[in-house]
Amino acid sequence: MYENIEIFAGDKAAEIIREKGLKEDDIKTIVGASGGPKFLVLSGLDKSILNTWFKKRTEPLFFIGSSIGSWRGAAYAAKKPVETLDRFTESYLKQHYTSKPSRKEVTDESIRIINDFLKDEDIDFILNKSKINLNIISAQCRGISSLESNIALALSFIPAAIVNLFSRKLLLKIYTRTLFYDSRNTPPFIDSFKTGNRIKLTGKNFEQALLSSGSIPFVMEGIKNIPGAPNGTYRDGGLTDYHINIDFGIKDGIVLFPHFSSRVIPGWLDKSISWRGPVKKYFSNTVLVAPSKNFIESLPMGKIPDRTDFKTFFGRDSERLKYWNEVIKKSSIAGDEFMEAVSSGKIKDMIKSF
Predict the structure, then answer these.
(1) CB contact at 8 A, 6 and 210
(2) Cβ within 8 Å of residue 323, ≥6 positions away
(3) Which helix (H) or strand (E) holds 44?
(4) Which of 140, 192, 248, 290 has the fewest CB atoms within 10 Å, counting from its CB?
């Protein structure tokens, strides 16, 4: 009985799985969504995947992520991915803030996390030797949206929110979807980004690109003067791609999406728009794996971690860490269940349509 995970598949992905199961060599791209501490519930799934697959891979595997998803992607692409993921998680757990942290305080903590889990040799391996090609989404902001004052940011969000109600295409004229990509191999989804906003990842811009992808508006400082990138302030990739809703460019093969939710929310401003979902044709080759409702209800507090936990447990970091660590511990159940479903072939009977 599989009760801790749900598996969704697009039409072409379902056809592939029903014909021959889910094979690691069929996976061409992995997706990492935004979501802050929500990624902790995926710890067990990430580790199960990395402990089982891709060790002998010779073909490039593309990872595309926004915000915290790109940080997970950096761990995936590291020489020792499971150990790097553990370092990332451990460093993330250590966050500590004053009652009303400034943007600089949160930005400095984010820089600390990056420096904790990625050393120069790790970045060199990711850029030059890894079979997993890391691709990072950020949002280029210009005009008043590039300024740091709360008033300017608030004023920029008003037209953005209104425009977004009618058209995501119009929103992308306000916030420009930007890809920092591993240039060793052209990613299949590169056409989803404007030519001028396709930036090659290098040793000079890697850390700034990763930081910008998670630079939450109103919470962190925007990142300016990124080498190789057009002028502007770069903010959280979730502004344009909260859960990543792009044409992945895969015609044959699988896009694997380990996700903390069965719902795919295209952009940050879509969180309260219940009727907006992903473009179905973009997800034709996608397999999404998410914790089930039963699993989430079994967690402490009956929910997965999120950013409100910093306020809920303010001044009680030990209680927050106890809760988060319990979620991480239990997440191994979901990871084991997924790999068992794959190895047994029972995944064929589990897949649901998006």
Answers:
(1) no
(2) 300, 301, 305, 309, 313
(3) helix 43-52
(4) 192
Strand pairing report for 61-66 and 132-141: parallel
Half-sphere exposure of 249 (CA within 13 A, CB side): 14
DSSP 249-296: --SSSEEEEE-S-SS---SGGGTT-TT----GGGGTTEEEEEE-HHHH
Residue 289 in contact with residue 19, Cβ under 8 Å? no
Q: What does the alpha-carbon distance between residue 171 and residue 155 come to, in Å, rounded to a whole number?
A: 15
What is the Cα–Cα distance from 172 to 190, expressed in whole angstroms? 16
Length of the chain: 354
DSSP character string of 313-325: TTT-HHHHHHHHH
The pLDDT tens digits of the residues spanning 15-57 come to 999 999 999 999 999 999 999 999 999 999 999 999 999 999 9
The three-state (H, E, C) secondary structure of 104-141, written as one string:
HHHHHHHHHHHHHHCCHHHHHHHHHCCCEEEEEEEEEE
CB neighbourhood size of 184 (10 A): 14
**What single-letter amino acid sits at 13?**
A
The beta-carbon contacts of 321-324 under 8 Å, at least 24 apart in sequence, are: 321/93, 324/37, 324/40, 324/93
Amino acid identity of residue 45, one-letter, is L
Non-local (6+) Cβ contacts of 123 within 8 A are 203, 206, 207
Supply φ then ψ for residue 225, to 5 degrees: 55, 45
Phi and psi (nearest 5°) for 4? -105, -10
pTM of structure: 0.96
Rounded (to 5) percent helix, strand, coil in the chain: 50, 15, 35
Q: Each residue of 180-231: pLDDT tens digit?
A: 999 999 999 999 999 999 999 999 999 999 999 999 999 999 999 999 999 9
Contact 211, 118 (CB under 8 A): no
Can you say whether residue 284 is alpha, beta or left, with left for phi > 0 and alpha for psi between -120 and 50 degrees? alpha
